[in-house]
Design goal:
With 246 residues, this protein is of the alpha/beta class. It folds into 2 domains: 146 residues, Vaccinia Virus protein VP39 (Rossmann fold, 3-Layer(aba) Sandwich); 76 residues, no CATH class. The chain is 41% helix and 15% strand. It is built from 10 helices and 9 strands. The longest helix has 17 residues. The chain starts with a helix and ends in a 9-residue tail after the last helix. The relative contact order is 0.10. Bound molecules: S-adenosylmethionine.
Length: 246
């Protein structure tokens, strides 16, 4: 079965990220990294149950903590804790007083519409993204998978420049793909999870194949370790990646 069909067979609320909630530990790491503090007005776009806003207020003493989500059940839940919460589509939201925004979305349509709104924010506003920077932007600071993009955005001149800023390398080999796949899995996963290797292998293969297709893999030929994992996936799990290689 193709990897796309395998992903299709999983619960879609998790695959789309709609019902993925960051752990308290992940929020703390993100807020420490962003140096969140008493002068900040913090917005969590897609705030889910509001845990991030609660931690920002109670542990990082932000001046104001606001959460926005278009799921009314989640907002009802969030309203039970500290913070201001609004049930609306973030594309229509007003957040011009923000100094720090947490924005973890992978949907390109949302990202492209939001980037236009972000560009109008006050200089110095930090937009925290997870896994990748905003498209065509050079991040201000990276603690992978957490990324700070600051207003006004600095635009990238090449994929290599962005790669260097995010991964600290000029090209992607097996070791880089594995290291960053593992960091992502560990950062956003449940801290109690023991066997997350399966996910790391899938992520590693996807990172390396994307790098190869974008022309930023270190070598043209497929590294032995990638070949081994492609075979393991096919032989033992009937999951096929090779059609993705251009
Ligand atoms: C981590 S975010 C990202 C999910 C999103 N499907 C994506 O990856 O592009 C998940 C949270 O955002 C909320 N959400 C998704 N789309 C939204 C929108 N357009 N406006 C407000 N909240 C949204 C969901 O209810 C959920 O609590």
């Amino acid at each position: 079965m193709k990897i796309e069909d395998y992903l299709e067979s999983l619960p879609q609320n998790l695959v789309t990220g709609d019902d993925v909630q960051l752990s308290d530990q992940a929020f703390r790491e993100i807020f420490n990294f962003a140096d969140l503090g008493k002068n900040d007005i913090f917005y969590h776009l897609g705030c889910g149950d509001g845990k991030g806003v609660k931690i920002a207020i109670e542990e990082f003493n932000v001046k104001k903590g606001i959460g926005i989500d278009n799921n009314s059940q989640k907002i009802d839940q969030a309203k039970k804790s500290s913070g201001e919460f609004f049930c609306e589509d973030i594309k229509n939201s007003e957040f011009s007083d923000a100094t720090v925004i947490l924005f973890w979305f992978t949907d390109e349509e949302i990202i492209n519409q939001m980037i236009e709104k972000f560009e109008k924010l006050k200089p110095g506003t930090r937009i925290i993204t997870i896994w990748g920077p905003l498209p065509d932007c050079l991040p201000e600071q990276v603690n992978f998978p957490y990324i700070i993009n600051t207003i006004p955005f600095k635009k990238t001149s090449s994929m290599q420049e962005q790669l260097l800023a995010v991964f600290g390398v000029k090209c992607v080999d097996f070791v880089t793909a594995w290291e960053y796949a593992e960091r992502y899995t560990k950062a956003i996963g449940d801290p109690g999870v023991k066997n997350d290797r399966f996910l790391t292998i899938i992520q590693t293969l996807v990172i390396w194949i994307n790098a190869k297709n974008l022309g930023v893999a270190c070598r043209e030929e497929i590294p032995e370790s990638i070949k081994t994992y492609l075979n393991i996936m096919k032989m033992h799990f009937d999951i096929d990646f090779e059609h993705l290689l251009k």
